[in-house]
Design brief:
heterotrimer, A: alpha+beta, Cytochrome-c3 Hydrogenase, chain B, 3-stranded antiparallel beta sheet, C: 12 helices
């Protein structure tokens, strides 16, 4: 009864070459989530072949990092995955702290968790909104943005900025929580969670969405692993890989939370798994806010004099909103890193997707691309 | 085409159609509720959002009672900036009024268009003179007009209560609940770029 | 009485110049065209306000009270924009397409009963006129898609044409049930047949109403059927290559169509210019003129269309066609049978 799942790497359609058409979803496009160019060869409505062209947002992040000091590189990490900025900074700081052998104070660990999980909620709310826009329900976008504004206000109170926070620093965090933050945060989280049933009524349980998203863009678990997916995209296919569980960093092993897992690996699973992750992240934030009350102390380990980590290399990865963000830093004892390489989750997700779009319809391409939740800043660096 | 289109039975079609109708009505119930409730728009510029004290907006320098900025022209902020958007020119003063003020500030330009408002300059300032305050309304018609000289950073209005308590260096921020342990040696990290 | 030369000319223009009452027709036509243009502007404003409040924001605010002048400035802006035509496009076809879409939308207003005796031309095949004129719209869309010399526009135009001609069938069948129950195709006659109670309150009428709502959304290329047009993948569908005045005409045509279909729905299903039958307790003397009720009902219908648009996601083209052919057509055919049964059952209670 169900549609055949296209086998990766093999064109299934095999239509008449006379009917084929080369269409270009150009770099400027309302729904490619950034500057991404897709060249699609379609046969009627079905995609025969497609190529992604990236690099429109390449800003030479890794090269620039080689000529700036470690401290000056931290704000640049926010600009990679600019929608989910906090985990990028965390990964970089973890790598630098490994190189320099720095310890992070306990209070700072809690603050890092609060910031990262709030950021995850904000990023997933943006995803929910853009998924709505891609599929035609513009109202969903505005609702997602409205909730996201509340969460971003919390992050703004913590760090002073709304998108590029520069909150996590080498050795700790930038600032402590302002007065009354805990009550405000709990109230905001309650409001956000109370709106999720509205989303369900409006969008998630809508028959039209389910028709467009269920059994569309199915990525089996083995294929997802082979193609290098990570993050909610991988978990929707049924692979229980979450860096917070598999390779814990910070104090994540102290918190109780579930890692939502999908079963079908279709667009619908990738959508609902992020809604569930919003709920789990708010659990973590509540636990962290309770846990931080008894912890005093500094929020940053001070660094004496010039910061020159010993020669060597370090790799650290964290669970970003989009997947596994990793930083590989090589130091030769100077002020600046010798090499800084970013393992970007969106790059892996997008690269894997090129083969997996074949055989689906053009309208599904938009849905699948939206469900992977890429940010071109992360892809291109 | 090699694909077979999904073949649904009449019963499945009927269920899909009916559930489509019902879920559409449920969605419409949500929408009409929002239609009749208050919009969340803040009608700028008639209303404004209240920003936190530590919002990283425009740069501002602290001045003493005589209107002279605290700046000692050490150049730490210019060295700390990742984007090199602070340009400082200083010269030696003939008669230093106090031991710290050995240099006179000739030029202190911050390119507001280039700046990424990361706050490293404010953290690097040893005098707690430079700060980023909650001001974002400084549009200009040309990019050249966004290079803010010192005079722009010394606004004539007095600092607000919150701005007076502003500390760029977080190690000296009071923690909200618990009493702080005695202050550790040195402020922030890497004051030099 | 002796008539002066000017007076006799005016009399002849009204009464008949070689048999054609020029002014007698000209004034209503000008009025109707003016109403359509004004209504399109107001509808665009209403759409933006309604969508704003549904999305928890406000819509246009600053230009004019509550943003009423915003559409005027937008229309002026479109008019002064440069008219860009791609070099490889077919200029004549690109020029014709907006007008081929716009004209049927306006022609429909000729038979609309705005009030008692307020119809421009009371054809006794009024509904047939409406249906056949509205089916000329897809021609313009195909012309627009093809003439733009753009693959995306072509895709959008083809999809839209497929959608529009498919959805005419259930639309006509739904209206057919009503025509059976009313016994006449004339728009005035349909309104008059609803003097006891509206057709929407009868079982076949209710089913036909729901089906007609769905097909109207499809005919208007609106959510959830706006794949050819506002699809986020096709940029703007068949209007991608249009700018300036021609784009304004497409836009105007869409809203003129919206108003036309709302008015048709009101006339055929909701009782036209008569007061709603659920308000039977109102004394006769308090009844307001027919135009007023017609305007209220049309506004409600327009609001319902906008409400649906801003709630639902989009259907894919094959799902859309499945809904039409496998869903709506069997329902409307069954509805015809139901209407026959209904007529048999209620023949005695209706003074037909």
């Amino acid at each position: 009864m169900a549609e055949q799942v296209p086998v990766a790497g093999q064109t299934q359609v095999g239509g008449d070459p006379f009917e084929e058409m080369l269409v270009n979803m150009g770099p400027q496009h309302p729904s490619t989530h950034g500057v991404l160019r897709l060249l699609i060869r379609v046969s009627g409505e079905y995609v025969e072949d497609c190529r992604f062209h990236i690099g429109y947002l390449h800003r030479c992040h890794e090269k620039i990092s080689e000529s700036q000091t470690y401290v000056q590189n931290i704000p640049l990490s926010d600009r990679l995955d600019y929608v989910g900025a906090v985990p990028n900074g965390w990964a970089q700081c973890l790598a630098v702290e490994k190189l320099a052998g720095l310890e992070v104070p306990a209070r700072a660990e809690y603050l890092r968790v609060i910031a990262a999980e709030l950021q995850r909620i904000a990023s997933h709310l943006l995803f929910v909104g853009t998924m709505g826009t891609d599929l035609g329900a513009v109202t969903m976008f505005l609702f997602g943005m409205r909730e996201r504004e509340m969460v971003i206000d919390l992050l703004e109170a913590m760090s002073g900025a709304r998108l590029t926070y520069h909150y996590i620093r080498i050795g700790g965090v930038a600032r402590d929580l302002p007065d009354g933050f805990a009550e405000r945060a709990v109230r905001t989280l309650d409001t956000v969670l109370s709106r999720i049933p509205d989303y369900d009524d409006l969008f998630t349980n809508n028959r039209i969405l389910r028709e467009r998203a269920e059994r569309v863009g199915v990525i089996p678990a083995q294929t997802a692993l082979e193609h290098g997916f990570s993050g909610p995209t991988l978990r929707a296919s049924g692979v229980p890989y979450d860096v917070r569980r598999c390779d814990p960093y910070g104090i994540y092993d102290r918190f109780e939370f579930d890692v939502p897992l999908g079963s079908n690996g279709d667009v619908y699973d990738r959508f609902t798994i992020r809604l569930r992750e919003i709920e789990q992240s708010s659990r973590i934030v509540r636990q962290a806010l309770e846990g931080i009350e008894g912890v005093g102390g500094p929020i940053r380990t001070p660094i004496k004099g010039r910061f020159r980590p010993a020669p060597g290399w370090a790799y650290a990865h964290v669970e970003g909103a989009r997947g596994d963000v990793g930083y590989y830093i090589v130091s030769q004892g100077g002020d600046s890193p010798y090499r800084l390489k970013v393992r970007s989750p969106c790059f892996g997700n997008l690269a894997g997707l090129e083969h997996l779009i074949r055989g689906w319809k053009i309208a599904d391409v938009v849905a699948i691309l939206g469900s992977i939740d890429i940010v071109l800043g992360c892809v291109d660096r | 085409m090699a694909f077979s289109l999904p073949q649904y039975s009449w019963r499945e079609l009927w269920e899909k159609g009916w559930s489509g109708f019902v879920t559409a009505l449920k969605g419409m119930r949500v929408t009409i509720r929002y239609f009749f409730s208050r919009p969340t728009t803040v009608v700028y510029p008639y209303q404004r959002l209240e920003l936190p004290v530590y919002y990283r907006g425009r740069h501002r320098q602290r001045v003493d009672a005589n209107g002279i900025p605290w700046c000692i022209a050490c150049g730490s902020c210019a060295r700390a900036c990742p984007l090199e958007c602070i340009h400082i020119e200083a010269s030696a003063t003939p008669e230093p009024p106090d031991t710290k003020r050995r240099r006179k500030l000739d030029r202190f330009d911050i390119d507001l268009a280039r700046c990424m408002y990361c706050g490293l300059c404010a953290e690097a300032c040893p005098q707690d003179c430079l700060m980023l305050v909650a001001d974002y309304e400084y549009s200009a018609w040309r990019p050249q007009d966004l290079v803010a000289p010192l005079s722009v950073q010394l606004r004539p209005e007095p600092l607000s209560e919150a701005e007076l308590r502003y500390r760029a260096d977080p190690a000296s921020d009071p923690a909200p609940a618990k009493p702080k342990p005695p202050r550790e040696a040195s402020a922030g990290e890497g004051g030099e770029g | 009485m002796e008539r002066g030369p000017i007076e006799s000319l005016v009399h002849r223009l009204f009464a008949g110049l070689y048999g054609i009452p020029v002014l007698g027709w000209l004034i209503p036509i000008v009025l109707v065209l003016g109403m359509v243009a004004l209504a399109a502007l107001v509808l665009i404003w209403l759409e933006r306000k309604v969508s704003g409040h549904i999305q928890s924001r406000r819509g246009p605010l600053h230009n004019g009270p509550h943003g009423l002048l915003q559409t005027v400035w937008d229309a002026l802006k479109l008019l002064v924009k440069e008219d860009i035509v791609p070099s490889s496009a077919d200029r004549l076809i690109m020029l014709m397409a907006p007008f081929v879409v716009f004209t049927p939308a306006v022609l429909v207003y000729v038979v609309m009963p705005f009030g008692k005796g307020w119809t421009v031309a009371n054809l006794n095949i009024g509904l047939l006129w409406v249906v056949s004129v509205l089916s000329l719209g897809p021609v313009g869309i195909i012309l627009g898609g093809w003439g733009s010399h753009n693959k995306w526009s072509l895709l959008g135009g083809m999809r839209s044409a497929a959608q529009l001609i498919s959805y005419e069938i259930p639309s006509v069948l739904a209206l057919g049930a009503i025509v059976m129950m009313a016994g006449t195709m004339s728009m005035d006659g349909l309104v008059a047949a609803q003097d006891q109670y509206e057709f929407v309150l009868t079982p076949p009428g209710l089913i036909a109403f729901v089906v007609y709502l769905v097909t109207a959304l499809a005919e208007l290329n609106r959510n959830p059927f706006d794949l050819p047009e506002a699809e986020s993948e096709l940029v703007a569908g068949f209007v991608t290559e249009y700018s300036g005045f021609k784009f304004a005409i497409f836009f105007l045509a869409e809203f003129a169509n919206l108003l036309a279909l709302s008015m048709i729905t009101v006339t055929v299903f909701l009782g036209g210019w008569q007061p709603p039958s659920v308000l039977f307790f109102l004394p006769d003397s308090a009844q307001l003129p027919g135009v007023f009720w017609f305007a209220i009902k049309t506004t409600v219908m327009v609001f319902v269309f906008q409400w649906i648009k801003w709630t639902l996601p989009r259907l894919r083209i094959d799902q859309m066609l499945n809904v039409c052919w496998k869903g709506l057509i069997p329902i409307t055919l069954g509805n015809l049978a139901l209407a026959c049964v209904w007529l048999l059952l209620t023949e005695k209670s209706w003074a037909r």
